[in-house]
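Support reply, case 0932

Customer input (verbatim):
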Amino acid sequence: MGNIYWLASYPKSGNTWTRILLTNYLRNADEPADINSLDGGPIASARQVFDDHVGLEASDLTQDQIERYRPFVYEQMSEQATEPMFLKVHDAFTYTPYGYPLISKPATAGVLYLLRNPMDVAVSFAHHSASKVERMVRKMGEADFAFVDNPKSLHNQLRQRLLTWSGHVTSWADEPDLRVLVVRYEDLKADPIHKFAEMIRFCGMDDDPARIEKSVQFSQFEKVQKQEEEHGFGERMPGAKSFFRKGQVGSWREDLSQELADKLIADHADVMKRFGYLSESGELLY
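Our regenerated output:
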């Protein structure tokens, strides 16, 4: 078993909040962690991480060549780690053109998969990307949807294939030989102490009640939102007004038209039913 715990999610599903919770827990300090200095290192798709471990610049390689090397980067990181690592990843669990899992299984200790209602994801992702909600709803239904997929643009991250929203979820949740704990954002919001304790136990750490409660208090949405207002946040996309916008459950009802809601249901009904966002009769539960 490897040393990397993947914090995997479709964008805007609670990944950053989870990193804040974990950082506050691991540091166990007397004040909240700085959101611009979180534990776990950069996102798994960071170009600099790739360049440093491969000894080649990603800019000199094709997208397929980059993906050929990425699994071995994570194996090297896992082998060099002296304690468990927590790495954010937005890639779907896919296989390289050479037939190897992009996210190396030998490097993996476990996966915390953060899941959120696609209705709320669509609205939050649109704001994050300074994009129209209509476009984001459409993209969430496209099997070839990817981040940073323009080979002519030099970005600080590598290509990340997201697939459809449903495809992303099932790529992780149903992959054989992976230890995966699926954590719904809605459950984490409703009962953060007990749900975070479950996550801590999954990662092999002692679920100290006082420490967990302090971590949850230090990671409250209002606190991290205030940090961003005062000091900014390095992960905010250019053009977005803020990264920590609302963080609410069900706020899509204020921003999503019936037509777009129906489109999301049509595209993702099976997975929404499987994970409790839609009843068997088609009723929205959040």
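We compared this against your earlier run and they match. Two observations from our side: The longest strand covers residues 108-115. Residues 112 and 181 are 5 Å apart (CA to CA). Please reopen the case if you see a mismatch on your end.
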